[in-house]
Amino acid sequence: MQLIINASNLNLNKRLRRTLSNRIAKGLSKLSGKIRRIQVSITDVNGPKGGNDKQCQLKVDMHGMPSILVVERRASITQAIAQAVLRTSMVLKRKLSRARQFDRRPARQALTDITCSPAIIASN
Description:
This protein is of the alpha+beta class. The chain has helices at 14-27, 77-104, 111-115, 118-123, and strands at residues 2-8, 35-44, 54-62, 68-74. The N and C termini lie far apart (60 Å). This is HPF/RaiA family ribosome-associated protein. InterPro entries: RHF-like.
């Protein structure tokens, strides 16, 4: 699993980067075998004005499935990261569950098998 971290309008020090990567690794550890790459973008939307303006965006690329994008905005960077990781984990579990459900459905009988049946040909 490849982790790419980008920040704009923020100064991400080593400690914060380590915290971010640990949260992501811990929160998505059960799904790490299915994940190819995670791109994290952290932004201070309003700059020095304050408020719920720290945005964390997680884009997850998985093997054989479409990408997933989760965006969270909170008052602090750590809150935004924690909530984004939690939501990403829930979305990934739901997507994988639906994919497994779809794979387990019984196959329908092909239409050609029905139309080429000897009983139908004999009645014509």
